[in-house]
Structure formats: C-alpha cells, structure tokens
Known about the structure:
Structural class: alpha+beta
Radius of gyration: 13 Å
CATH topology: Yope Regulator, Chain: A
Strand order of the largest sheet: 1-2-3-4-6-5
CATH class: Alpha Beta
Number of domains: 1
Strand content: 25-35%
Number of strands: 6
CATH architecture: 2-Layer Sandwich
Oligomer: single chain
Helix content: 25-40%
Order of helices and strands: HEEEEHEEH
Mean pLDDT: 93
Number of helices: 3
Amino acid sequence: MASQPDFVQYIADQCARAGVITVRRMFGDYAIYCDGIVFGLICDNRFYVKPTEAGRRLLPAIDLRPPYEGAKDYFYIDDVDDHDLISRLVSETCKELPPPGKKKKK
C-alpha cells in the first residue's frame, strides 16, 4: 500500500520548522529531505527517520524497524502529531548526516 498524499503533506508540515522540507516519490513511497539532505522515508503511511545519536537522545522511546522489506532499520515515529519534537528531531538528525552530494556533469 502506498502512502496517501495527505499523509505525506502532513508529515512535511510537521517537519517544517527544521528547514526547507521537500519530498520525492520513490518506488511507490517517498523520501523526505530537509535543506537537500535525505533524513527519512514515508512508507505505507508511516514515518521513518534515519537513526543518529541525536535521535537516540531526543526520542522518548526507540523503535527501530525497516521501512520496507530488506531495508536497514530506521527510527519508526509513531507519534507524528508532536511537531515540536519532530522538527527538533529532523534538525538534529540532519546535523549528523552528510551534506547532499553534487550531481556530476555529463
């Protein structure tokens, strides 16, 4: 089951305080970016964030699960309504992730 556009927009809105949030459709679901850095996935109307030490410190409970079969574990974010926590989580997570790569010229 693919994610519903309304849910995807809701998650993007919940992250908005962290920076410029964009989403890209990938393989039937979505990758979510903050200021060009991919920090999570939205799969089957569920929100996942790449695991980082900052995330471990911020999340009240850690729930690691793969967003799809064969994927590495991500933080599964069950409470998507706490926009303050989600924005802080996104902001702090992105500080620990590498900057977006530059596209090679052909």
